[in-house]
Amino acid sequence: MLTLSRWKVLLVVLAVLVSALFAAPNLLSPEAREKLPAFLPKKTLNLGLDLQGGSYLMLEVDVAALRRERLTNLVEDVRVALRNEEVVFSDLGVVEGGVNLRVTDPAQMQAALRVLRTSVGAPLAGVAGGRDVVVTSTPDQRIRLAFAPEAMEAEAVRAVEQSQEIIRRRIDELGTREPSIARQGTNRIVVQAPGESDPQKLREIIGQTAKLTFQMVDDSVRPEQVAAGLIPPGSELLPQEDQAEPFVVVRKRSVVTGEMLVHANQGFHPETGQPIVEFRFNGQGARRFGEATSQNIGKRFAIVLDKKVISAPRINSAITGGSGYIEGNFTPESANDLAVLLRAGALPAPLKVEEQRTVGAELGADAITAGQNSALLAFVLVLAFMVLAYGMLFGGVSIVALVVNGLMIVAAMSITQATLTLPGIAGLILTLAVAVDANVLIYERMREEYRAGRSIIGSMDAGFSRAMLTIFDANITHLGAALIMFSLGAGPVKGFAWTLAIGVFTSVFTAVLVTQLLLAVWLKSTRPKVLPIA
Description:
By secondary structure, the protein is α+β, with helices and mostly antiparallel strands. Helix content is 53%, strand content 20%. It is elongated, with a radius of gyration of 33 Å.
């Protein structure tokens, strides 16, 4: 096993050169990195929130608000379905977590049940013929609709998952580098944005639901009816930014929704020069918007964002191109923020900020200094131990392998852009100790074999071959623990686990191949008579 094979030499030299190439940008200033040729790597270690500073938010998905919204939509679905079948009904509304109504004509009871059971709600996943809305009736011609418990649970899970992805897209639009967005518990999301020093802006971008709808204005409602609170069942009163008309009555049924947008961008009005938000619909949205505008020429439609009317222009002609723009009291910054929200998509449910804090850059610098000092102290102690225990030659070989190990870890984390946290530095220090432990196992086995009467070459070869099983066993155990922490942990725990996992592979490589190659070179060049560590 202790041979100077050409493939071993080439592999070690190539690994060291590649590692040095990808780790080198960490030693350069940002200006120097920008001047590097395009074919050279420029990525550096991605520092986490505790090292770089930034913003931390803990958000809670408002599942109760999601349930209320679904019930409100269910009321409208029931109203439309029964009117299409000309079923006369009354007392339609949300009651105790469900939707209740009364069919006026007993002869229409079965028709009402049939249409509600087939056209309201959606198929329930995993249940043949099942739907997510359960319809029940009573002898007094009353019908109750409620969401199946498993359907609402699945909806809540989807809402959290969708919120995570939408938050990620919104933060990416801000240019924040490698944010950490992790689920905590059943309905909480933890956001860590390294380098983002304005948590309030982050909170505004993340926390706004950004649900955009286009709804027809109900001009049949007179001002005195609005003042008396007499709003028709199919309409709702919404506030408007325009002070001349602070409230607008709109139809509850949306003509087009923000989910049908494929593009949104900040621009300027071609005539007034005021900031606007330009948008474009997908094929379905363009078709529905074209049909609605062609059928309602002369009427107004409202552009609604999070239950607030941004503007309510009048339809002068059919808009069939599938694109348009939103006017309002925008500044260039607010128009761009709205475009960012629309591009990222609407949150399925509101988010409540449970905790917010900022880690200053000075605190991050202190953490980096503490981590560097800890790593340096660990390296010096390991160096002293190895030299005292195994002499300058064998101890020095272990230290060279240790330096190569650290170089490979830094290079691997720079390539993958894995976030380095303070616990990650602890994982790095632990990796160095584990790597030296492999050398100790090999050296001690060499001693035993040499004292048992074997030759120098035989004892060194046995040291590597017979210690290999123990080394692999220990590192596989470490890798398993790292994978468990990475899959189940969050934030700092993941940072620690990632550094540990990378260190397992680099430690085995350097402790076995690098050490073996250096000792083989020494053995071939000096041909010693005595094993130095004996």
